[in-house]
């Protein structure tokens, strides 16, 4: 892993002008709980309860120690979302006040790059509810392809919802990155 604790503080994984991607910590619970209390966000998540549950949020406000990684997305000193690839599955959420600003695209690109290039994942899966066109569009912009559809229980919604499954292979990601590099270099 490319970060470590120094004097109790976790160092950032990725730092840009406007965002820091870093492990979540117990001190992030208040910011994360604000996001968990936003119905437009939580209704699109597969594993978060509604209404927001502080104990559940606390269980997600810790550094992840399983297979893969979970990063908090920090802007202006507060957590505005998270992005993760755990057990080969991509997931993300962004505070609704930060939608349509390119943040999702930035954090998903960083997560895919980490998962494929450093963690050497052969394939990454993702799923979106059928009524989440924005996330489906985001996934497709990275080369994800649809491979399966089925109904699943939506925890926050309390009923089964049609879910679309997407996957992205390492060769497809490499091809997309090489195409982007060629365009950027003028080749």
From TrEMBL:
Tagged with keyword Transferase: yes
Domain N-acetyltransferase stretches: 19-171
InterPro entries: Acyl_CoA_acyltransferase, GNAT_dom, N-acetyltransferase
Keywords of this entry: Transferase
GO molecular function, one term: acyltransferase activity, transferring groups other than amino-acyl groups
Pfam families linked: Acetyltransf_3
Transmembrane segments annotated in the record for this chain: none
Name of protein: Ribosomal-protein-alanine N-acetyltransferase
Taxonomic source organism: Loktanella salsilacus
């Amino acid at each position: 892993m490319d970060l470590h604790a120094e004097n109790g503080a976790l160092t950032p994984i990725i730092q840009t002008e406007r965002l820091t991607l870093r492990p979540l910590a117990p001190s992030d619970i208040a910011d994360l709980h604000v996001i968990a209390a936003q119905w437009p966000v939580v209704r699109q998540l597969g594993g978060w309860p509604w209404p927001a549950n502080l104990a559940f949020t606390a269980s997600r406000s810790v550094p992840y120690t399983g297979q893969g990684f979970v990063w908090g997305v920090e802007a202006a000193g507060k957590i505005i979302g998270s992005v993760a690839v755990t057990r080969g599955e991509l997931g993300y959420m962004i505070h609704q006040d930060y939608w349509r600003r390119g943040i999702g695209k930035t954090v998903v690109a960083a997560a895919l790059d980490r998962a494929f290039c450093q963690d050497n994942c052969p394939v990454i899966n993702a799923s979106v509810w059928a009524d989440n066109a924005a996330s489906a569009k985001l996934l497709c912009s990275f080369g994800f392809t649809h491979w399966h559809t089925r109904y699943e229980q939506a925890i926050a919604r309390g009923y089964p919802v049609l879910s679309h499954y997407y996957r992205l292979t390492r060769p497809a990601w490499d091809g997309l990155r090489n195409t982007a590099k060629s365009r950027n270099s003028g080749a």
